[in-house]
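hey all, quick one before standup. I had two proteins in the batch that finished overnight and I want to keep them in one place so we stop losing track of which output belongs to which input. First protein below, input sequence then structure tokens straight from the run.
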Amino acid sequence: MTRLLEKYKQQIVPQLIERFRYKNKLSVPRITKIVVNMGVGRATENKKLIEEATKHLTVVTGQKPLVTKAKKAISGFKLRQGQAIGCKVTLRGKRMFEFLDRLISIVLPRIRDFRGLSTKSFDGRGNYTIGLTEQIVFPEINIEAVEFVQGMDITLVVTGNSNEQSRELLKLLGMPFKLE
């Protein structure tokens, strides 16, 4: 069992039950999946960018990404229907907790001028999205081998009913939020 999953089951669940007065353990909010998405808009000009993005996403997450394709053609962006424009990975279970542990303890502190995550990135249903501007903050990626710097979105899907419950769960897991 991963370190973060153990902490969730032994420490965080009892604290959330006490704070929000849940009747049983199944009503406590939990993270169901993490979706890591890289939108590569410049792939319309250079097809190698998609290959490199999928390679980096595989190294970072430990799982082969799904290449996302354009749903409709937009002539202003020189985009055809069915053209590859990004890639995404959905993490669940043990891999999800390992990725979240690395994100909290290693990746976020490596970001330049990092002052904490915004608490305004919740969507109203308790899901939280983090936007990273470059993939080189992950220690698994060799900086010399990177041809182009690409950002990514990391979405944490939480079963909580509200932003407050999800924020408390993520705070207890160690997510570094800004002090307001």
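OK second protein, same deal, sequence then tokens:
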Amino acid sequence: MADLEKLVEQLGALSVLEAADLVKKLEEKWGVSAAAPVAMAAVAGGAQAAAAEAVEEKTEFDVVIKETGPKKIEVIKVIRQLISLSLTEAKALAETAGGKVLTAVGKEAAMDAKKKLEEAGAVIEVA
């Protein structure tokens, strides 16, 4: 028989991504859905909250300019590569703190845009 206290402690230490992966594996193995209350009761208490967070994980992100940085021209070029804007529109967006470069995009696209803009010298937030 498994040491339940040790299992609860280990499950409580899982990150959200690890808990989501655990949920998927348990769903596949047991042929159930994590959305069902019975399946959630089978998971130890500490992992239950983590699994619930994993199910509600954000899927759409906004890429927001916090600061253009010293290389404004490079940032403008990257903005124009990412979205179809005129030079004037891209310049205005680059100069607007809190301006959204991309709205409601997937995590991979948001992180890629953030990386490109940061390489150009901008300070970016993904929200």
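Flagging for whoever picks this up: The first strand starts at residue 61 and ends at 67. Helices lie at 4-12, 16-30, 37-42, 45-55, 72-82, 87-94, 107-119.
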